[in-house]
Amino acid sequence: MDSITTIAIASIITAGVTTTFGTMMPAIGEGRAVSAALTSIAQQPDAAPTITRTLFVGLAMIESTAIYCFVVSMILIFANPFWNYVLAN
Amino acid sequence: MDSITTIAIASIITAGVTTTFGTMMPAIGEGRAVSAALTSIAQQPDAAPTITRTLFVGLAMIESTAIYCFVVSMILIFANPFWNYVLAN
Amino acid sequence: MDSITTIAIASIITAGVTTTFGTMMPAIGEGRAVSAALTSIAQQPDAAPTITRTLFVGLAMIESTAIYCFVVSMILIFANPFWNYVLAN
Amino acid sequence: MDSITTIAIASIITAGVTTTFGTMMPAIGEGRAVSAALTSIAQQPDAAPTITRTLFVGLAMIESTAIYCFVVSMILIFANPFWNYVLAN
Amino acid sequence: MDSITTIAIASIITAGVTTTFGTMMPAIGEGRAVSAALTSIAQQPDAAPTITRTLFVGLAMIESTAIYCFVVSMILIFANPFWNYVLAN
Amino acid sequence: MDSITTIAIASIITAGVTTTFGTMMPAIGEGRAVSAALTSIAQQPDAAPTITRTLFVGLAMIESTAIYCFVVSMILIFANPFWNYVLAN
Amino acid sequence: MDSITTIAIASIITAGVTTTFGTMMPAIGEGRAVSAALTSIAQQPDAAPTITRTLFVGLAMIESTAIYCFVVSMILIFANPFWNYVLAN
Amino acid sequence: MDSITTIAIASIITAGVTTTFGTMMPAIGEGRAVSAALTSIAQQPDAAPTITRTLFVGLAMIESTAIYCFVVSMILIFANPFWNYVLAN
Amino acid sequence: MDSITTIAIASIITAGVTTTFGTMMPAIGEGRAVSAALTSIAQQPDAAPTITRTLFVGLAMIESTAIYCFVVSMILIFANPFWNYVLAN
Amino acid sequence: MDSITTIAIASIITAGVTTTFGTMMPAIGEGRAVSAALTSIAQQPDAAPTITRTLFVGLAMIESTAIYCFVVSMILIFANPFWNYVLAN
Amino acid sequence: MDSITTIAIASIITAGVTTTFGTMMPAIGEGRAVSAALTSIAQQPDAAPTITRTLFVGLAMIESTAIYCFVVSMILIFANPFWNYVLAN
Amino acid sequence: MDSITTIAIASIITAGVTTTFGTMMPAIGEGRAVSAALTSIAQQPDAAPTITRTLFVGLAMIESTAIYCFVVSMILIFANPFWNYVLAN
Amino acid sequence: MDSITTIAIASIITAGVTTTFGTMMPAIGEGRAVSAALTSIAQQPDAAPTITRTLFVGLAMIESTAIYCFVVSMILIFANPFWNYVLAN
Amino acid sequence: MDSITTIAIASIITAGVTTTFGTMMPAIGEGRAVSAALTSIAQQPDAAPTITRTLFVGLAMIESTAIYCFVVSMILIFANPFWNYVLAN
């Protein structure tokens, strides 16, 4: 296989794997956070505003790690400097 | 194998794997969130509206990580820039 | 092996694996959600309508991740663009 | 190996693996759901009709994911488009 | 190896693996269901008829996933269309 | 290696693996069921006849999955259609 | 390697692996059952005869799965039909 | 493959893997921390300011380990000294 | 490698592995049984004779699975029929 | 591949893996420590200063293990003695 | 490699692995048994003689599985019949 | 590859792996110790000085195992006797 | 590679692996035993002499399994009969 | 590769792996022991001297298993008899 094909394949596979495994654990972490929020609201309904506000901040933090992976994946598909280099040469 | 075949195979496998493993953990996370919601409603039926509203927001956040994977998978099948490049050359 | 055979094999294996592993975790998640629903009904029989309604919404969300995988699997078997391309060439 | 043999082998193995691993987790999920149902009936015998009805709906949902795998497996054995193509050519 | 030998070996191994791993989780799931039934009977002896009836329905559902695997295994050994094809040619 | 040797080896290994791993989980499941039965008898000695009867039905169901594997294993050793075919040819 | 050596090696390894892994889980299951029996006797000393009788039936069922593996292992070492065939030819 | 292609591929794969697996555990850790915060607020609503402040400091510490991985990943894609060396030679 | 060497090596490795992994789980199972016995004696010192008697029966059953593996291992080292055959030929 | 390319690739991969896996467990450990701190503050708000002070010392200790890995990773990328040697020769 | 070297290497590796993995689980089992003994003594100091006596019997049983592995390991190093055979020939 | 390159690569990879995996479990152990300390302070604030002093001794012991790995890693990078030997020859 | 080198390498790797993995589980087992001892002393300070005496006997038993591995490791490095044989020939 | 290089590489890798994995479990065991000590002090502050004394003896025992691995690692790097032999020849 020539360079272009090899780099294309490596980019495709890495992009898929990055998004796939990178979003696994955030989904688990968010599920755990949401569960705790729901249990907490049931236990102390008066604190629901504080709980949901803290929940959303926490979800944003956790989601950010999934975003990192999605960004790397998009870079590898649409703005891959190595791909651009081999195309230009 | 020539470049076109190789990239096609890599795209097929990556697309399948991305959707497969990328939807695994969201399913677990959503199951956990739904479980907590049901337990919470049983414990505090009066807070059911707040609980279901928070649940739906949380499910949307978790589902979003599955959507990322589905999107990457669809890009690899129907809008793959590497595939388009090798077809064009 | 020629291109057609290789792509056919990759499609067969990926289609099977996608459905197989993609339905694993939804089954677990649904089992967990149903368990929580049953325990909750036993604990608070008066809230059964709210619980079953929330359960069905949650099952639909979890099942959707299994559907994504089934859809990708069907696309790979019956509407595979890479297969169509190599057949057309 | 020629194309026909290779595709036959891939279909055999994929069909077996799909059914095998695809029915693993539904079995676990159903076992968990049944366990919860039995525990719930013991705790609240008066709610047995509601519990068993919800249980059967839930089992149907979980079983559906096993059915998806069985269907894909049957398609690969008895209605495999790739097999039909190589036989026809 | 010629086609007949290869397909025979693939069928033997797949048949064994399908039954083996396909009956693993049903055994676990049934063990869990039976355990829950026994614990429930001990807790609420008056509900024993309802519990055992629900248990048997549940065991049948779980056993069905093991049956799927056994059926696929028997098809691969005694009614394998790919084997029949290569024998006929 | 010729066909006869290859099929013999595949049959030996598959037969061993099928019995081995196929009896793993039933042993665990039965251990769990027996444990639950013993705990239940200690908790409610008056329900011992109902518990042991339910236990034996459950053990039979779980053991049946181990029997499936043992049967497949015996078929592969003593009534293997692929082995008979290659011997006859 | 000739056929005799290959089949001998496959038989040796399979026999060892079958006994080894086939007795793993019964040991665990029996340990769990014995533990439950001991805890139950301590909790309800008056039910000791019923408990030990149920325990021995359960241990026999669990041990039977280990016996299956030991039997297959002995068949492979001392009454292997494939070995007898290659010796006779 | 020549040096440039090889280093490009190693950089692509390592960059993807670093971000992917490096953000896995922070997501879990943050999910756990957020869960504990929500449970704590529900238990002691008066301490909510102290809890959220401590939570944010902790999330920052945990996020920092994800940042390390993201930084290494960005270095490997956009400021890779080995890549620069092989390009310059 | 000639037949004698190959069979010797397979026997050595299989003998070691059989004893090694075959004694793993009995050790765990016995540790669990002994733990339960000690906890039970502490909870109900008057039932110590019954408990220790049941414990020894249980340990004998569990140890028997380790004995099976040790016996197979000794057969492979000192009474290996395949080794005897290749030596005799 | 020549020496320079090989060492470059080994350095790239090792640097990525070191940071990735080396920051995994600190993230988990910190998440656990932060969780314990939050739970403790909720349980004993008066001890919050002591708890947060102990927490920060502990986080620093845990973070230090992540720093070790980051330092080794940076050494391998920017101050690699083996790379410098092969460049100088 | 000649026969002597190959058998020596297989013996060295198998001896090490047998001792290593064969002593793993006994160590865990003994740790569990000792833990239970200590907890039991603390709970019922008057039963200390019975507990320690039962503990020592149990530790001897568990240690025996480690001894099996050590014995097989010593046989492979110092009384290996296969090694003796190849030396004698 | 010549000796120098091979040893360099082995040193790089081993140094990275040693630090990476060697600091994993100390991080977990320290996280557990810190968690226990925080919980203990919340439970018994008067014993805080004793607890923190014992905590710091324990953290030092646990950190020491991470230091061993870091030291071995530094030896392999900067004071590797095998590297020095091959450079000197 | 000649015989001497091969046996040396096998001895080095086996010696390292034997000590490494052979001391893993004793460390865990001892940690569990020490934990139980400390918890027991806190619960029943008057029984401290009995507890520590039993603890030391138990630690000696557990440490003995680590010693076995260390002894085998030392035999392989400093008193290896296979190494001595190949040196003498 | 010649003998010297091969043995050097095996020594480097084994030394790293031995220290790395050999210190993993002691770190976990010590973390568990320290946690139990801290919890015990919080529960029974008057027994702190006995607890810390027992803790230090236990930590020394656990640390000893890490020391074994570190010693073997140092022997392999600085006093390797196989390395010395190949250098002398």
UniProtKB/TrEMBL annotation, chains A, B, C, D, E, F, G, H, I, J, K, L, M, N:
InterPro entries: Alt_ATP_synth_F0_Csu, ATP_synth_csu_bac/chlpt, ATP_synth_F0_csu, ATPase_proteolipid_c-like_dom, F/V-ATP_Csub_sf. One of its GO terms (molecular function) is lipid binding. Signal peptide: none annotated. Keywords: ATP synthesis, Cell membrane, CF(0), Hydrogen ion transport, Ion transport, Lipid-binding, Membrane, Transmembrane, Transmembrane helix, Transport. The record marks 63 as: Reversibly protonated during proton transport. The chain crosses the membrane at residues 57-79. It is found in: Cell membrane; Membrane. Residues 13-76 form the V-ATPase proteolipid subunit C-like domain. The keyword Transcription regulation does not apply. It is a multi-pass membrane protein. The keyword Translocase does not apply. Pfam families: ATP-synt_C. One of its GO terms (cellular component) is proton-transporting two-sector ATPase complex, proton-transporting domain. SUPFAM superfamilies: F1F0 ATP synthase subunit C. CDD domains: ATP-synt_Fo_c (cd18121). HAMAP family: ATP_synth_c_bact. F(1)F(0) ATP synthase produces ATP from ADP in the presence of a proton or sodium gradient. F-type ATPases consist of two structural domains, F(1) containing the extramembraneous catalytic core and F(0) containing the membrane proton channel, linked together by a central stalk and a peripheral stalk. During catalysis, ATP synthesis in the catalytic domain of F(1) is coupled via a rotary mechanism of the central stalk subunits to proton translocation. Belongs to the ATPase C chain family. This is ATP synthase subunit c. The lineage of its organism: Bacteria, Pseudomonadati, Bacteroidota, Cytophagia, Cytophagales.
